[in-house]
Amino acid sequence: MKQISILVPVGDVSLSCIEGPYTFFNKSNEFLMSSGKPPLFNVQLVGLNRKGQVYDKFFTIYPDIAITEWDQPDLIIIPAVKGDIHGMIEENSGFLPWILQQYKNGAEVASLCMGAFLLGATGLLRQKKCSTHWLAANDFRKMFPDINLVSDKIITDEHGIYSSAGGNSFWNLLLYLLEKYTDREMAIRCAKYFEIEIDRTNQLPFVVFKGPRDHQDEPIKKAQTFIENNFQSRITVVQLSILFGIGRRSLERRFKKATYITVADYIHKVKIEAAKKSIETGRKSIDEIMRDIGYTDTKAFRTIFKKTTGLSPIEYWNRFNA
Fold first, then answer.
1. What is the distance between the alpha carbons of residues 21 and 220, in angstroms, rounded to a whole number?
2. Nearest CA among 110, 48, 124 for reference residue 75
3. What Å distances lie between residue 319 and 61, 202, 203, 206, 283, CA to CA?
4. Which of 172, 196, 225, 320 has the fewest beta carbons closer than 10 A?
């Protein structure tokens, strides 16, 4: 029997990331029993204490047990947290040494969506891969520069530590874990029951690019604004270097430090974001959209579009065009 501990944190938490895993693993037990197999999962809600936590003003969840009473989980699930992340980590700091100790004792640990911030605070992710909601990627990189954030990935799995991407992507991690603990047949059965798209690998189609502005490098902010206002034109690093009076190497170094990506990648992302919006809301052909954002090479455009969104232009059109 695998002991699964779903944390019940203090503060603002995504309720679905507690209820979802609880329902998922209990339903998996039902499917196992209907197949003539014994139930595999014992699911418990674990809190800092047994006090009920109120979420979204309406819902109260009472932990089954407190961390001081429970020290034998096989899998710890950290749900998504919201609001003031620094405050959330402080309020839930009592979980951190407990998670660390359980991992040392052989437990696996999985974070769902922005639960990655609590997982990151344990120190377990140093020099390891992790994913989280794409919207929080820059904040995560700033808070945990020693963690290898792979924000395009739906799932990471490294040395018994798992993470999932944003929103409902946690269902894909639950399927992944179920297949690992049982078999493919059971994972498919649950995927059909919960209507989850199995084997989804990245969250790129859902990302909305917005260059970070919370840095203090004013010339780089001006360069960002120039790129965003002139994406229809061909923009080069040399052009920006001359325009803002910064040496090319210095510009590239400062730009990446401020925005976490290169100048060239920033230009491409701004252009592709404009193309995505045009595909979603307009009536122009893909070739017209390509020319509107300053590309003339069809092959190059398709390559960059797929690298950025995970889909070809026509696949994106078929999925998102109104």
1. 43
2. 110
3. 37, 15, 14, 11, 15
4. 225
The CATH number for 2-204, chosen from 3.40.190.10, 3.40.50.300, 3.90.550.10, 3.40.50.880, is 3.40.50.880
Residue with tokens 């407990």: 98
CA separation, residue 188 to residues 38, 69, 178, 280 (Å): 18, 35, 10, 32
pLDDT per residue rounded down to tens, the chain (322 residues): 999 999 999 999 999 999 999 999 999 999 999 999 999 999 999 999 999 999 888 899 999 999 999 879 999 999 999 999 999 999 999 999 999 999 999 999 999 999 999 999 999 999 999 999 999 999 999 999 999 999 899 999 999 999 999 999 999 999 999 999 999 999 999 999 999 999 888 999 999 999 999 999 999 999 999 999 999 999 999 999 999 999 999 999 999 999 999 999 999 999 999 999 999 998 899 999 999 999 999 999 999 999 999 999 999 999 999 7
At the fourth CATH level, the homologous superfamily of domain 218-320 is Homeodomain-like (1.10.10.60)
List beta partners, residue 81: 13
Residue 22 tokens read as 């609880």
